[in-house]
Amino acid sequence: MGRVSVILPVFNEEDSLPALLSELTSNYPDYEIVVVNDGSNDATEDICQPFGVTLVRHPYNMGNGAAVKSGMRRASGDIFVTMDADGQHDPGDLRSLVALMDHYDMAVGSRSFLGQATPQRAVGNMIYNALASYVAKFKVQDLTSGFRAVRRGVALEHLPLFPNTYSYPTTLTLAVLRSGYSVTYVPIKAKARVGGKSGIHLVKDGTRFLMIIIKVCTLYSPLRVFLPVSAVMFLLGCFNYAYTYLTDGRFTNMSAVFFMSGVIIFMMGIISEQICQLRYDRHDTTSGDKF
């Protein structure tokens, strides 16, 4: 299975960090612990010193995703494990995730509906899980979970796609699934964060998650986006034509616009699909043993 590197993005988590590092270093002495201080203004670095972890420093707060990227670039393990440093993730669940890495390319900790931070976020995640499942043609159980284990090569292959925000798990999940890698889910129990409030905002970050789903979908499987939109435009043309024919006995310009839009969007999807396939073919011939 190889060496395991645990990557902890940290921003002002001095309340929960000592207990987390103590548990990780005592229960997993062979694991590499990489703490990425994402511009904290508390005692994060003083807390890390006694534990002998690998410390990566950001000069200012760059975002959770940026911290994860920095940690992955520094980590030397064959398996990367990402988890929150705010006390929500139980280090005991690490064994369940890592144990599956002999058979899967990525294992994700899946929270239950009641395990979400708020009921509103739980409902939002259900919607995103359903949309992501449609995009990936795979049952996505927890799209936004940051507690996951992933093979080094798989993570580094998709690293340039990661945004610098909290939505990196969304990108990683969809990119890995659409690239044909294997993914599994492990039930976990998420606890309440220790001190402070979550940095995720339902409206702002929810909109970002939606845009990322669309972006990754158009990057890996464009017709999954273009085809439904084309179909909707075509159906609108049919309904408009039927209405105007029954009421005025004529074919209107609006119906023509709907029909033409449907055809154009469909053709754009076909072209995008061909470009996507060319990118896959080029990657297959040049990737080799890069990682």
UniProtKB/TrEMBL annotation:
Pfam families: Glycos_transf_2. It comes from the Bacteria. PANTHER family: RFBJ PROTEIN, UNDECAPRENYL-PHOSPHATE 4-DEOXY-4-FORMAMIDO-L-ARABINOSE TRANSFERASE-RELATED. Residues 5-155 form the Glycosyltransferase 2-like domain. Keywords: Membrane, Transferase, Transmembrane, Transmembrane helix. The chain crosses the membrane at residues 225-243, 255-272. One of its GO terms (molecular function) is transferase activity. Coiled coil: none annotated. This is Nucleotide-diphospho-sugar transferases. It comes from Desulfoluna butyratoxydans. Gene3D superfamilies: Spore Coat Polysaccharide Biosynthesis Protein SpsA, Chain A (3.90.550.10).
